[in-house]
Design goal:
Elements lengths: L4 E4 L2 H15 L8 E2 L1 H4 L6 H10 L3 E6 L21 H11 L3 E6 L24 E2 L5 H15 L38 E4 L2 E7 L5 H10 L2 H19 L3 H40 L2
Parallel strand pairs: 1-2, 1-3, 3-4, 4-5
Antiparallel strand pairs: 6-7
């Protein structure tokens, strides 16, 4: 378990934000070097032991914070962050003790917590430079975060994609005879060959993740969640070479996000009509 990049989050506060961040970071780092509990801990594994093992190989810990991060309470009404056995607190304090690079990642325009808000072993956290991620510029913000992470990792870290060595030819690439042959177009992250046809480049479909998150938060939670589920499949299917399935997942993500938006408008319209009707009755 290499876990070079560790994503720390609280399920009751930022589960979907953490999932979206995890999927987006795979554009820049190999999946196996990003530790997140649901994808790395196997059934039957000791949860605390697995986390401690991952932290022992961790270079960067990302703390995903959303609106309720500070105030999430347990079943007894006590703030979970005050519990010394709280796993989120243990992960962060362990990373601080081991001098792991800790980066708070703030969603939903929340402010950075102050030292007075935190338990004693986390009070150095506000001194660390944080990163803000806006849903309206999600992909651009995550790209900047990924670039910052790469600067923090050692050159031989497994999370840094290795450049292929094609040999030293004195600065010149060998010229190949392309007569009577189809010239293959160069590929990059958004252009790949489709079904072996080297003359037809295909643009990777949009995952509509930002649209899905916005409609989930602002419009209709159930339909928005379905949209998010489909959107998270797009990149994985594409990278696995399942291009048609990736396009289908993209279309479904867009479709359910639109449904969520329409549902939000309809519910909002009905609510306004009921409020207006109530105000009219109150006048008699």
């Amino acid at each position: 378990m290499r876990g070079t990049i560790f994503i720390n989050y609280r399920k009751d506060d930022s589960s979907w934000n953490a999932l979206a961040l995890y999927n987006e970071l795979q554009k820049y780092f190999p999946k196996e070097t990003i530790f997140k509990d649901f994808n790395t801990i196997r059934p039957g594994d000791d949860f605390v032991e697995s986390i401690q093992k991952a932290l022992s190989h961790c270079n960067v810990l990302l703390i995903v914070m959303s609106k309720n991060w500070l105030e999430v309470k347990d079943k007894h009404g006590n703030r979970r962050l005050n519990d010394p056995d709280d796993l989120v607190r243990i992960e962060i304090s362990t990373a601080i003790e081991r001098n792991i690079q800790v980066i708070p990642v703030l969603f939903d325009n929340i402010p950075m917590p102050t030292s007075a808000d935190l338990p004693e072993n986390l009070r150095s956290l506000p001194r660390r430079q944080y990163v803000e991620i806006e849903t309206t510029r999600f992909e651009a913000d995550v790209k900047k975060l990924a670039e910052a992470i790469k600067e923090l990792l050692p050159p031989d870290d497994p999370a840094i994609p290795k450049k292929e060595d094609h040999g030293n030819t004195g600065g010149h690439q060998p010229v190949q005879n392309t007569s009577n042959q189809n010239v293959q177009k160069p590929q990059h992250e958004n252009v790949q060959n489709f079904r072996g046809n080297t003359n037809v480049p295909v643009v990777k479909p949009d995952n509509y993740l930002v649209f899905a998150i916005i409609t989930t938060v602002l419009c209709c939670l159930p339909l928005g969640i379905v949209s998010i589920i489909h959107s998270t499949k797009v990149d994985n299917l594409w990278n696995a070479g399942q291009y048609e399935q990736a396009k289908t997942a993209s279309n479904q993500a867009k479709q359910f996000a639109i449904y969520a938006a329409i549902a939000g408008v309809v519910v909002g319209g009905i609510y306004l009509i009921m409020v207006a009707a109530g105000a009219g009755l109150g006048g008699y």
